[in-house]
Design goal:
3 helices, single chain, mainly alpha
Amino acid sequence: MKAAGLRFPLANPAVAAVIPGASQPSRLAEDRAALAETIPGAFSHYLSHAGPVAPG
C-alpha cells in the first residue's frame, strides 16, 4: 500500500513530486524501498479507474 500511496499521485501529469513526511530517519529508507516495489497490475488498474475520492 505504501508503494501505491507514494506513486499514485505521480501518475497525474500535474504532479511533479511527492513529499512524504518521515517521522524517523528509518522511514526514509522505507519510502525509498517502496518506490522501487512493483504494484500489482489489478490494483494499479483499480486505482487508475476509481476516480477522485470525495472529501470527508
